Structure to design on (394 residues):
């Protein structure tokens, strides 16, 4: 089965073409085409993602990325096509709020044959709702033009499943049959949660942040340290520099709710503690490194302790870590080293760095497994939901 995947949940626009085989007992995914544009440079001056700008950029980027992915997959066949009047009018209606996208798509469809793909997978949530709607509307339009079914993919499920993928070349990925129950730690700019998968594609929320997401805390601390956006990688870089220096660290930060008898998180107090240490002060470069080091250690300690508690409570056999913060060097190293010591029989899965950020490959993988079940969404019922919960989405 060939899946055309679309991702527009935040500040990356991505389109991929995947050739998929197998099922939950073992699947293989060959990346035929993959195109992605990051908007980070555009949002940097705002210190975070500006939704209206993200929406505009998605509308501008989707058709060129679709053409690029199809061309890489050798599925782009140029030929003059006549769009039936009723289809033309319906496309204009679907994309009525996206004039630039509508014009570009109509031009593309009039010059290209229908590609040899079987279904469309599009991120329906969670994420920035204005950004999500661009991708959802684009998928609806392609579904109508090419008579293709649509899977409404969950962004966080994509992160879970992508963490299970293995690859030797970055082109062909395998997803071996996972050992269930599986516990997923999802850590990103908008999410910090523990999700249990007892049965394949069935989810239960075990724990979540009560305030800031961990990626959000990284970004806020970065601003306190006068570091550029996105702040997470910058804080991590300073922390790693201090680890290599191995000097005595004068800073001590709290580990919120570390010993509380539940699997929820809180990072607001930790962020506030950093604020008190930096407010009205000119920190030296060494002090910034030391504070970043202590902050990252505190985050790591909380993430690990809460996850270990959840593993014990759920008796999960596999731990999957997904989301943008799973790219953090300290988090990856700490979980790898500590879990092998504390729970050597628990299988740890962390995605390759290429799949830690938002991407369409993970959306295609998630979409494929639901397409196997014929779990398609009628275009007229497809909506974007910025606050979608994984435990109730599928």
């Amino acid at each position: 089965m060939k899946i055309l995947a679309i991702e527009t949940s935040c500040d990356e626009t991505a389109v991929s073409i995947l050739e998929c085989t197998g099922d939950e007992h073992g699947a293989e995914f060959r990346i035929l085409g993959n195109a992605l544009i990051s908007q980070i440079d555009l949002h940097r001056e705002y210190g975070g993602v500006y939704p209206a700008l993200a929406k505009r950029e998605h509308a501008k980027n989707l058709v060129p990325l679709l053409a690029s992915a199809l061309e890489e997959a050798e599925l782009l066949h140029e030929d003059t096509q006549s769009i039936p009047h009723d289809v033309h009018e319906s496309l204009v209606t679907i994309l009525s709020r996206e004039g630039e996208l509508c014009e570009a798509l109509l031009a593309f469809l009039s010059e290209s044959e229908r590609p040899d793909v079987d279904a469309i997978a599009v991120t329906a949530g969670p994420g920035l709702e204005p950004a999500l709607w661009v991708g959802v509307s684009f998928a609806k339009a392609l579904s109508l033009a090419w008579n293709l079914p649509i899977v409404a993919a969950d962004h966080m499920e994509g992160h879970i499943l992508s963490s299970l993928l293995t690859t030797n070349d970055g082109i062909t990925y395998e997803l071996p049959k996972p050992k269930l129950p599986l516990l997923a730690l999802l850590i990103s700019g908008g999410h910090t949660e523990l999700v249990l998968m007892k049965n394949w594609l069935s989810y239960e929320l075990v724990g979540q942040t009560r305030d800031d997401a961990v990626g959000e805390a990284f970004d806020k601390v970065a601003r306190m340290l006068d570091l550029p956006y996105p702040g997470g990688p910058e804080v991590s870089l300073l922390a790693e520099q201090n680890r290599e220096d191995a000097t005595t660290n004068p800073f001590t930060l709290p580990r919120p709710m570390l010993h509380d008898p539940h699997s929820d998180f809180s990072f607001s107090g930790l962020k506030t503690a950093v604020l008190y240490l930096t407010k009205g002060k000119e920190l030296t470069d060494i002090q910034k490194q030391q504070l970043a080091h202590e902050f990252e250690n505190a985050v790591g300690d909380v993430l690990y302790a809460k996850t270990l508690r959840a593993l014990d409570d759920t008796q999960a056999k596999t731990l999957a870590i997904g989301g943008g913060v799973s790219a953090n060097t300290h988090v990856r190293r700490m979980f790898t080293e500590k879990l092998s010591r504390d729970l050597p029989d628990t299988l740890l899965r962390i995605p390759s760095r290429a799949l830690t950020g938002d991407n369409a490959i993970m959306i295609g993988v998630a979409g494929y497994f639901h397409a196997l079940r014929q779990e398609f969404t009628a275009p007229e019922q497809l909506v974007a939901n910025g606050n979608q919960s994984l435990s109730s989405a599928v």
